[in-house]
Amino acid sequence: MENLLEVDSLATDIGQFHILTGVSFTVPEQQITVLLGRNGAGKTTTLRTMMGYLPPRSGQVRLRGESLQSVPTWQIVRKGVGYVPEDANIFANLSVAENLSLSLPGRHHRNSSNLALTQVQEQFPDLREHWQKPAGVLSGGQRQMLAIACVLVGGPAVMLIDEPSKGLSPLFVERLGDVLLTLQGSTTILLVEQNFYLASRVGQQYVLMDDGKTVAAGPMHELLAALDLQQRYLGIRILSEEMNIP
Amino acid sequence: MKTIPIRLRHIMLGLFSSLALLWPLLFGTGGTTATLEQVFAFAAFAMSYDLLIGYTGIISFGHAMFFGTGAYVVAIALARGNGHTMSFLFGFGLAVVGAVVLSLLVAFISLRIRNAYFAMITLAVGQVFAVMAGSQGLRQWTHGNDGLTFSVPNWLNGDLTLYYLCLFFLFLTAVFLTRFVASPVGQVLRGIRENESRAVGLGLGVVQFKTLAFVVSGVTATLAGGVYALAQSFVSTGVYDVSGISLNVLLMVVIGGVGTLYGGVLGAAVLVGVQNLFSNWSGWPILTQHEMLWFGILYILIVRFLPQGILGSVVARGGVVSWRALPRFKKSQT
Amino acid sequence: MSVVVTLIFNGLANGALYFLMSAGLTLIFGLLRVINFAHGVFYLWGAYAGVFLYNEFHNFLLAILGGVITGAALGLLTERGLMAKVYQDPTRQLLLTMGVLLVLTELLKIPFGRDPAGATIPSMLAKSWLLGHFVLVEYQVFTLGMGILVYVGLLLLLHRTRLGLVIRAGVANPDLVLARGVPIRRIFTAMFMLGAGLAGLAGALAGPYYGSVTPDMGMNMQLNAFIIVVLGGLGSLNGSVLGSLLIGVATAVVGYYAPSLAVLAAVLVMAMVLVVRPAGLFGEKEVA
Q1: Distance in angstroms (rounded) separating the CA atoms of residues C211 and B127
Q2: Can you tell me the ipTM of this complex?
Q3: Which of A88, B176, B308, C1 has its CA 20 to 30 A from that of B325?
Q4: Structurally, how many domains does chain B consist of?
Q5: Nearest CB to C286: which of B113, B131, B132?
Q6: Quick check: is B330 in a domain?
């Protein structure tokens, strides 16, 4: 099991604020790694720093051992790091087809592009129905599917997905989980997720963040057993106790 | 967030004011006092402009609309009233009223959307005034492109009186604007410049405060224009010129130092001084006939590399820790 | 009656020139979120390049190409050399473009002087026809045709090409375009060059159109273009088409009866529209 991505003591400032102070973890190949932590722990900032949107104050991100330091975002993407941001992750003014073709290389690769689009149509029947409509008409769940499909058609080595379940109905969270499970084993994914149910369903590895630092990491089943970690950093026990109150 | 620290500012202020006060007594009246009168009028004008660009974060490219209106209204009033004191007072009064109305109108159509609209619309409105001043329809008032000569009230006759009037006006402007930017309103304006969306979030009426700043700046600029006309005893369409006035004052403030208020005085002295010097010089035509080219290049270099301007950077080099090291231009979406 | 037809046709031809200016301005704003105050100087240099080349080589096609290339090259220098350095600081970008206008206008005066220079219409486009009482001027028809051609070309570019797809995506969300592996900064530069090239084209056409070139023409044309994009709504291509035609006809009509009041008319039209619709005819609503 080789590590595709390595994040090494990353620290990032936004303005005068030290948002990340020490983030270190690895993303093993062909596994789904879930990045967990409370609101404001720095999960989104971690992803944005990894993608080159924010310059880190110190620390490094390595893709297959190669440093991504001061590599521009678009090149990081072309090196095989796909990114699905939390909000505004599709172009509402473009059609579904246009959204997808934006991720594909130019017209020189028309055959492989058409193949990729056909695969998307098979994998996401919802999107096929709205193919030529502006993506703005899609429902929240369909938008997340499109956002993921947009990154998938580019054939990434690893996908960073930021909270895809946010604002979705339980039914769509379920379907999202199904989609992610079909990718399990073939695609490397780093998933930021607040929904612990979804995280534990699809995740194989976990990384736990708190207050700008990584505090724990390991196989998912270890986190499921470590109730103290869940309570301390995710507040999960407290929530379930509250729910037990008659 | 202190600008120039008190001690240094007082020393500089004392030095320059005593020099300005004693100048005609030491060196006599004549060429240099006439230049200095222009410097004082432009310095007040530049300070009024810095209130916008440096303290509110909005950029006008048509501030000549006020300067020129002040100059023309005072000039026409005095020309019609044969230099009577009443017409002098009437002219300045009318100019102030006109400036308030004009600034409110322009603010109403341009400040509601985004700052870039304001820059474009002030440029366009400024150009309208330039065209109108030279138009045939208003010729009986403005004398068109020939310009208008008039006489000042008797008590103002004499180089010395006029000189001290200009100096006194600059002094009043400086005191007023210094107090204005230090007032609670001034603090709010700076808050808007630093972070407009946060100011909106705090529930401040951003448009209203910007409008207020524009009115205050416009009235001050109008008075500066009136004083300029007095000093010249003549007014022409040049007072509405985009590059000669509106961009000139931008260069003065940027070269002197944006957001320092007194930087405008320095910028006015440098630009007016050099422009007067070059106009009397015949050698080196590429330098002396194209001074705006060189000032323009200096301006670009300053905006690009030295956003604090000359005065700001000199003070920063003086080891004053409280001086803000970051660019003084507003950083937000326009 | 023939006066009305003539004025309207003049207005449409004016509008075509205005459109070439305002289209670049509005597209640059839509993508880069910056108002290019140097736009008029690209037009000015395009005009002088056109006149200079035509006088030297008597080849109108070369003159037009020269105007386009001059504009685009200055656009490239401005964008790469200045704008990109203060990216994410719109106030300084605005101040820098104004500086570019000032400096390049003054620079032009060194070889060419401050006085107007004559520009002649090439003989192959110098015909005119009398239709009843209405005179149809071939060069006006040509200008109008160029305007239409550019409009159609821009629509095709935006809706039929991959570059257009990237531009439309970039207008909505430049950060997300980066996440699709597209270097948006290069697209910014390309767009700036395209807009500047169109301004240069407008300039090269304008010299013969107005019969002369002067150093002031850049600022004057820029004012019209600003009025048009504010009126039509910043960032909207169709807004600038409508605004160009409106202001083109307005300036032609007012200019016929009172030449000096044309600017006043344009500003009044703009002010009236802004009072009713603060963001312009096709403008997006946005708070301060």
Answers
A1: 23
A2: 0.91
A3: B176
A4: 1
A5: B113
A6: no
